Amino acid sequence: MLGLPAGLTLLVLLSGAALYALVHRVLVGQFDQLLESRARGLTVLVEWDDDLVDLDDLLALPGSGAGHDGNCFELRAADGQLLLASGVPDGQTLQQPTQADGYWNLTLADGRRARALQWSFQAREDDARLPPAAPRPEMALTYAASRVELDRQLRVLALALGAFCLLLPPGLTAMVWAQARRGLRPLDQLAAAAAAIDPAHLDRRFADEGLPAELRPIAAALNSLLDRLQRAFTRERRFTADIAHELRTPIAELRTMTEVALLEPAGVAMPPPDLLIDILELSLQMDRLVSSLLTLARNEAGLEPARRRPVDPVELARAQWNARVARARERSLTLNWNIEAPVLLHADPDMLAMALGILFDNAIDHAPAGDHLRLTLTSRDGLTRLSLTNTNPGLQPEDVAQMFEPFWQKDPSRGDGAHSGIGLALLAALCRPLALGCTARLDADGRLVIELCQATDVAALVAPATPQQISL
Amino acid sequence: MKLLLIEDSRRLRQSLAEGLRKSGYAVDLAADGEEGLWRAEGGGYEVIVLDLMLPKLDGLSLLRRLRAAGDPTHVLILTARDTVEDRVRGLEAGADDYLIKPFALSELLARIQALVRRASGVKSPLIQVGGLSIDTTARRVSREGITIDLTAREYALLELLVMRRGQLVTRAQIEHHIYDERVEPSSNVVEAAVYALRRKLERPGNLLIRTRRGQGYIIEEAVSSNPSAAL
Description:
The complex is a heterodimer. In chain A, 46% of the residues lie in helices and 18% in strands. Chain A is an alpha+beta fold.
């Protein structure tokens, strides 16, 4: 904050000093020109007449001997002999200490500051008939003039510049600050409006009316960010509500079964085995749900690091299918293996096994009895694709778009308690750290195809695990 | 008193039905919305306990259809959907009460009892009749401070007659309200139940339940409620 005034002050001071030096030089130069012109005027009056210096014209000048216009001069011969002095205070000499021509400053005996010029010349030949080259004596004129007025002007200049230089920086800083504040006011209002938006008011948007044109793109970008944030919050709230709902139902069942059992007088009989089996099943159901939710949450939070390495998906798929083949047989389901070429996926084997297990569970649970499932593995155009196809009666294209939403079920009643609708959401969450694309579609026969795909150059697709800081 | 429980969760449906029956209610069951609507349209239920997320026909649609048909049966929604919007939607669709899962069985019973009283125009849970004191909340009958031990079905029969005091209650109505779909009433089951009730409640010269031959039964004495014991 202090940088701007300090820099401005330094700049103005340097500029003021430079300006003073320039004006000083000009004024002193003009003063010197005046001295020179007056000295020349006097030298013209010195004549050489018949081997004698004729000072009659010089002496005839008004004020000669008492100084001219308060100024003074000395005329000396080449050997330094004083020929004439005019206006020089008593006891003072105007002779230049270095004996050389030029200007210098001096203080007169009466205390006045003066500036002097020593000028060497030859006296003018009085006889115009003689050639100009005829020998004439060398003389030196020293002319001094008071520089009181010059010094006064320079002092006024110094004072004016000093005052200007001292007052300009704070004044300019204040003006810049005021202008900046005025210019930044819409930004402050935008910031205040942004600060007022909390999770309970994510429906608010920034109006671009009244905003400067420069800020409108920012408001539009913030509105877009709020749209995404609101969608994410809505999804999160629905997810939380769904979790609560999924847990409430089995808890209600457990509580009611227990309370009804307790209606029997104590010690009359052991709880019936059916009741105990139901309670055990409910416990397992809640355990599965909580485990799935924990895995989902950990994956979405990036807390489950994927230890990826080349793995054979067919080997993993066979192991997962074998673990479920008895359940598939109960429903007369068969699996057709359509492996075009042996190919490896770059994945964490445990996570990929879990993903394949979810794929098979989904097909076994929802395919009609007697259905023929098909597992396909291909590698073309730089993509490895693994898909599972099964019949899923009643599934519509609009259903497919929602299948990976947590707790989505075609039938929302969830009466059987066996399905929570978390499986495909978990599958999608497992695929993300494995750089696996996960999509669902209905094929030409209306059968459901869930496909996992991975680029051959998978390294390029791996998302960074740590948050990225945005450089502004 | 006969209830209809429409709930798709098998475990909850069965255990809740058992709890309600142990508390003296006759309970018919439905596992999905369509069956529930069909049973409800058959009528004769004091209260319908209705889940919202049902297969085939969801609970709110069922309720709206029922109300659109002019069915006045009291409906208690029993659901895991707990937001204010859900509750408002349920009550606006015509529900009389709303209870969120998981719930205490005692609270569900108290709410059902309150709806039964509302259906009968009786506000107090304590009813005095023929020297008897009937606590409809505790489902207990006493005379001069001494509790009379009744079976759940005997209590249900007494409560039905008391709630409709001054009105003739036919044998068919008793069968319908006291026995649910699990029981096939025999030809004299109502007479036997009334006989058993009379033995426990009536004293010589103090006839509480009168028989109208070929028509049914009636409690004619004016019923008095005890306002100070209101819930």
